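Look over what follows to help learners.
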Amino acid sequence: MKTRDKIVHAALELFNEHGERNITTNHIAAHIDISPGNLYYHFRNKQEIVREIFALYSAELLERFTPIQGQQESLVLLKHYLDSIFTLMWKYRFFYANLPEILQRDTDLHADYIKVQDKLQTNLINIMRAFVELKLLKVEEHELKSLVTTLHLIASSWLGYQSAMSPRTHITEQIVHQGMLQMIAVVKPKATEQGREQLQLLEDGVKAMHA
């Protein structure tokens, strides 16, 4: 692995474990046993590393939430998107946990974030529309954007909400799974009978992980 990639992966690991605000470039350099000077050869400051991580996150986000073409088992599709929610929230949990703070101090990053989220919203509306066509959801066209906004709100703010509700919240996989269950709970009232059955299977699967 190239030094630049090592720096980014080390930063992501440390940010997730200790919180981005508590980690310096010296911590990152020491973690992979390079000099601070070597790190600064690749990145001028910590914020550039954060931007690099955001670029990786954005690419993965849009790839995972691109509508899948062709015939697919509806349960397989639902599981794919639910697994993607968990993977992203867990892999980039520092970003989800401190989103407003991170964006407020970097106007360029904030602008990029908004562009990515606009693309994501379009993709999510198309995904929901596909679930309506598969007769998993019963949602009118004019309701799609509102439903997507609610789901996006839960995903993007869930970890911050959990941190706010407890002074000693340490983000765990169980907390991320609780966010997924909250999203399923929002979708369930909009589901058809077939859709509710499949959502229940997914819900039972998530709950079984912590039984």
Observations:
- The two ends are 38 Å apart (CA to CA).
